[in-house]
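Trying the structure run again after the queue cleared.
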Amino acid sequence: MGRKCGIAVADIRTSLKLPAVDSYQPGPDGQGPLANIPEWTERRLETNTMPGYAGSSWYFLRYMDPKNEQEFCSRQASDYWGQVDLYIGGTEHAVGHLLYSRMWTKALYDLGFIGHDEPFKKLVNQGMIQGSSRFVYRVRGKNVFVSAGLKDQYETDPVHVDVNIVDGVELDISAFRNWREDYNNAEFVLEDGKYICGTEVEKMSKSKYNTVNPDDLVARYGADTFRMYEMFLGPVEMSKPWDTKGIEGVHRFLKKLWRLFFDEVKGKVWNEETPTAAEWKLLHKTIRKIEEDTERFSFNTGVSGFMIAVNELGDLKCHKRAILEPLLILLTPYAPHISEELWHLLGNSGSILDAAYPKYDAAALHRKRKRVSRIYQR
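Done. Tokens:
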């Protein structure tokens, strides 16, 4: 940067404009192109505009050797750590991060500063969470709104409405009237006594009133419910619409899980009894399922696997610690808060994060089947 401190321009919108030049060339001593332009440098304006690109393109190399005051990263450190194992990011970062990271990595490799010419071993592009917009239909020239099923009988214009005052597709008419002053005296043409909104999946945006405040959902349902529902929406690499109404299912699942340990009336129901062959089979089937799904980033099917397991344990009336405790450890990456809480309520000391991951036992899936086979042979 050169100077120890900077001076803020009074109003950057009116007093600072980039100079018009025929071509931009690198400045002296590795400086940016603006260092070549006298009318810029005479005003002592900043010439280094690189960090916006470069800072996000090689920071992972600096992490390998952050206290090195002689170079960005020693060759010994970069050879030890090597490439980043996994990069997860949205497709909108394909240029700002991925393209520039590859360019910088290849340049540093050609110069002999590092020993790998690709920055990341594996790339996962996560899909965008889309908004499920809601529309009301205003009769042209009037403060009258027609329910979606009747809109073709009138000349109407669709108007975005805040999704937070719509229950599924049913509009909260009172909340709508209070939403904006010009809607205070709005009239409604209903169908079956309800105002039904139109829907459309769009980019989540404040201008479309289809954004959801995570803080509100966490306050209502808890962080684990919010976290698991995001995973449950669909494959990680696909864009998918957010629908707050669907979050109830995940919340019910976590309540079911809790009831395997504690009943609202009886209190503690978990016990130290020895599991049956069917219960062992269910546990190890779940271990295999969750391990495979997590390894391939199929978190939505992982959440589904947990739901199935908890439902089946409920059917088996299984409250046995030997089954429930490994299940909690499996669940921790998906729902860390409830897992930690139940881990301690089981009497464990230390964090569940330090617990050994359950080992899959293939034999547990076949014990019952083998016994049935021997009976058949006799």
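The radius of gyration is 29 Å. Worth checking whether this holds up in the mutant runs.
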